[in-house]
Amino acid sequence: xxxxxxxxxxxxxxxxxxxxxxxxxxxxxxxxxxxxxxxxxxxxxxxxxxxxxxxxxxxxxxxxxxxxxxxxxxxxxxxxxxxxxxxxxxxxxxxxxxxxxxxxxxxxxxxxxxxxxxxxxxxxxxxxxxxxxxxxxxxxxxxxxxxxxxxxxxxxxxxxxxxxxxxxxxxxxxxxxxxxxxxxxxxxxxxxxxxxxxxxxxxxxxxxxxxxxxxxxxxxxxxxxxxxxxxxxxxxxxxxxxxxxxxxxxxxxxxxxxxxxxxxxxxxxxxxxxxxxxxxxxxxxxxxxxxxxxxxxxxxxxxxxxxxxxxxxxxxxxxxx
Length: 321
Known about the structure:
By secondary structure, this protein is α/β, with parallel strands linked by helices. Helix content is 51%, strand content 9%. The strands form 2 sheets. Strands 2-1-3-4 form a 4-stranded parallel beta sheet. α13 crosses α14 (292-302). The longest helix has 20 residues, at 99-118. It is globular, with a radius of gyration of 19 Å.
């Protein structure tokens, strides 16, 4: 029998309430990507990661665990596991992830910060004070816990004197720019995606090497449908010298990657991801994503048929020495 959905969602809910994140991640692990970049602490404008890229190795490890044991006799002990998890963080034992994978996702964040610097954008970072936004629980409809957590996140940002957040992924952008203002009265923090910031400073971005590759673009449904971030990634890739290839179902009509339900329904997420891969591979072998969930799900579904990389990789190759 598969792991009971209600108990899996319950564990994620308990983790957010007790540990401020749906999956275990220490402040040291969450901020490791910024080591050596000399980003100042806080300031009026900060880069905000929302832990999304940092959490992907943990999510992938959990998905592998669910795929391996979901149909085993262990599934019947999930309710007991939820009870124990409130006392001891059991999900940490389910999330033995690849350190190589952690490094790869941290490199994405480093590239984003370096791209902002190369465009002459000044920004700080909250470091250990930054919190996960609660995006997954919002997507899963756990409203009460999400609303309480959103208040904590907002108050933490306000106490730091921050007025503007530069977000690095669509889910964090959507939470802070469109969802939080609906549930938090007098929300007054400006929120903008780093892709939008880079387009604003696009004249400061100058290619340092020739790039003439075709790049198949996979739009994030959250960016495209909810935040109207469609033109920006295309403008940046074209500025970098790439030829942007539009697949079937792109822009606001993009096709889902299979997320963000992979932690609860790994098989369904994989099936949807494979359908999207079947579309994408018709147009080329290099695919650019702009969301950590899309990157993880499509990479899992691709099985080596196409190369899935974050858009920051392509921009870094073109703009950074």
